[in-house]
Amino acid sequence: MLGPLGGPRLLLRRLREVMAEPISPQERLDKIVTHIAANMVAEVCSVYVLRADGRLELFATEGLNREAVHLTTMRAGEGLVGLIAETAEPLALADAQHHPSFSYRPETGEEIYSSFLGVPILRGGNTLGVLVVQNRARRLYPEEEVEALQTTAMLLAEMIASGELQSIGLPDVDIALHRPLALQGVPIADGVGLGHVVLHEPRITVKQLVAEDAKKEFDRLDTAIGAMRQSIDRLIEGGDIGPGEHREVLEAFRMFAHDRGWIRRLREAVATGLTAEAAVERVQNDARAKLQRQTDPYMRERLHDLDDLANRLLHQLTGRSFVTAQADLPDNAIIVARTMGPAALLDYDRSKLRGLVLEDAGASSHVAIVARALGIPAVGEVANIIDFVELGDALIVDGATGSVHVRPPPDVEHAYAEKARLRARRQEQYHKLRDVPAVTKDGVAIGLHMNAGLLVDLQHMAETGATSIGLFRTEIQFMVVSKFPRMREQEAFYKAAFAEAGGKPITFRTLDIGSDKVLPYMTKVEEENPALGWRAIRIGLDRPGLLRMQLRSLLRAAAGRELRIMFPMIATIDEFERAKALVAREVAYLKRHGRVVPGEFKLGVMLEVPALLWQLDELCARADFLSVGTNDLVQYLFAADRDNKRVASRYDSLSVPVLRALRRIVAKAAAHNTPLSLCGEMGGQPIEALALMAIGYRGLSMSPASIGPVKAMVLATDLAAVSGFVTSLLEASDGGPSLRAQLRKFAEAHHIPV
Description:
Blueprint: H1 7-20, H2 25-39, E1 44-50, E2 55-62, E3 73-75, H3 79-87, E4 91-93, E5 115-123, E6 126-135, H4 143-161, E7 181-184, E8 186-189, E9 192-199, H5 214-237, H6 245-257, H7 260-271, H8 276-291, H9 297-318, E10 333-337, H10 342-346, E11 353-358, H11 366-374, E12 378-380, H12 385-388, E13 394-398, E14 403-406, H13 410-432, E15 447-452, H14 455-458, H15 460-464, E16 469-473, H16 475-479, H17 487-501, E17 506-509, H18 537-542, H19 544-557, E18 562-567, H20 573-592, E19 600-607, H21 616-622, E20 625-628, H22 630-638, H23 645-648, H24 656-671, E21 676-678, H25 686-694, E22 699-702, H26 704-715, H27 719-732, H28 740-749
Parallel strand pairs: 9-10, 10-11, 11-12, 15-16, 15-22, 16-17, 17-18, 18-19, 19-20, 20-21
Antiparallel strand pairs: 1-2, 1-6, 2-3, 4-5, 5-6, 7-14, 8-12, 9-13, 13-14
């Protein structure tokens, strides 16, 4: 039972006074364990802190041999204390010595104690240590004492997290909170970034743990819960979202927000003497500790739902903004987020960003496209990154390998700093190639064009020496705004693009929306296979008003200039003819109204649907140009989603079937004298670009960062030699999985940088 000193409320107040005293960390910790032991009528109170090497070190004790402090250590999982650290669960025993995990250290003198109560010291669901009380007499600690000790452990968690205890542990051993971590994700934007963590949706750090007035805290909690529920109801019922994933997430929020068990646990935590904010953190710590150790994917997914709900409630209680203020952004910021949209990334000051790390985002996500455009190293699909970092932690992002280093040790930081310097020198070498024509050693010119989607992209034209904009993704403009751009806004945007391009040609791809590209202000259409569903030109032809508005904006913006328009996801000749008819209608409209039309315009097709491989003669006779979109074409050829980890690795873009299909397109375009280029990601990889040149491609469009490496490869290549080599492989092959290994060996033997 709780002692005569007034229970947990009085204990928390006394501990808060101790925390404010101007004494050393060890004296503070010694006073804390003495107060806890007295309050809980325990003969022993001990604090163990988890170190970076995975061992638990005794930091303070009342009742055990004090000479064992900082000398006694144990592994996580070893003994009762190690069991609590491993499971992150409280453990109450009346007869501890007969528990299977019981083991004692003679130097501590604890063998005379029978009853045992231990709780994990948690922060963000991660175990920082263990708090233990013990008694000689056999007794079962009741639930209210377990609750009281868990509440007290929150104060210790803040003390550990502050770094105050680092100075009193064993020398040269860090506490676990500061241990280095090496995490692996998926590379989504190339580059190396060294900086410090900025949370896109910053966590609320609860400073005031102890409540002055319990009734006031109950009222604050109830008010915040009500406001949070109303905000979720407004989002769902207000008509701002359609059916689909966004609604399902919010419905999950609503379900959890009305969960009686969750509300009961929050109120119980307040009843122990905590503020409303500390109660939310306490309940979420417990939930995190349990769910993080679940292997069931569904249960782990619920962790995200509960995290978001707790975060919403804390923001309601504190009135804080959900997003980091620009004024708080350091000069070397690495943004860490669960997920974020492209518009959110654009809101940050680019000059201060050094990298981006996301829990949920693949290489083809919209935010990845923007990160590449801005030249920000980025890694996605880093599991639970939010749980492992604190604001201001040192962080390294390797956008080439997908590696993320949290709180890196000096040798790792030095190695990456050197890697960043090498990359900078290499980029400087590429920059020197800017004005050098991209011509092979045997005199074949290769057009190196640039992919873009934002005005900021166009700034890279001058620094890369790109021949033109080979693919301008117009949908990006629609994705980064909160409402549908009207015609005047679109026209102004396209005029600005022409001005930034400085007279170089731009190939505008009409809206490629649908599938994974859902505009925030449009209702998402639920489909079994969205990548094969209602998207791109299919939406444009079924909703001609949408496509006509874009076409009219492009035509007006290009007044007197050359205009190149490319239609995505064309599957039949009829679709292309219908799209051309819409252009003709808009041209006629402008002429009737005395508007200046483009001096010259060309209409082309983005070849990404395999059906067109058997309509190439008809297509070449009607199109002014073709551009191959390998991202979709390759995944459709293999019926394998490139973003699905289970199947994406089953094919290679340098496989024989892919190269034969791409070579067929080259042959047909040449026969009809139809200009041909390639604008998929494949063209921006030096080894893939080498193969494409070998089978006849003379125009490749890629991200700005890829132009330098690809140009260096072009300049070192004898195209006749590599063409003969690849042709022999394609004709002799039995359809093996890939030519990558043979091509790499060829490049190495001929000193071609790939």
